Structure prediction request, 207 residues.
Amino acid sequence: MLSRRTGLVSLIAGIGALSVPGLARAGAQVEEPLADSVRSALSSAIANDAPPVPEFSETASRLKYLRWLGTMSDRLKRRRNIDFQTIEARTEFMRTVWYESTRAALEPALVLGLIQVESGFRKNAFSSAGALGYMQVMPFWMRTIGNGDVGKLIHMQTNLRFGCVILRHYLARENGDLFLALGRYNGSRGKEPYPNAVMGARKQWEF
Prediction:
């Protein structure tokens, strides 16, 4: 729970998963006018460079990353998700989450918690609001800062990059207030259930 808010609703940590296959219960991010400078910065931030193989100057840092990768892969395996039945698929996903979250100056555990709530780790998840993929990105973002090809939001790296860049943008809009930024991400700014659900799920991915 966010320490300055009360009333953690722990029972909704699985809010992203419904009984209907593929359907996700995500709110609608609000499409807002963006200044040209902001649009340009966001467009640059989602430039689709493939995650490089991480390089570490210290052996200890490299070993810590490898331990994180193995631990997170094991936790994802326990979810028995059809998209992640092989170690190769789990490793690729976690490697990309690590890269995109750290690239956007976000905690991987926070991003994983958001993915768990938004889509239940389902690549093809969609919401009644039209949000797509792991991080339930609204199509208007592809028109606003992307190339207009909404179908690419189902691509793993593209979806994770957009989601991380959007969350970082909302954090900037809210002057670093994570509670408000998460609410804005979900289209429920100022309400407790969604931020509390994400922070509750985040605890499951701490390392």
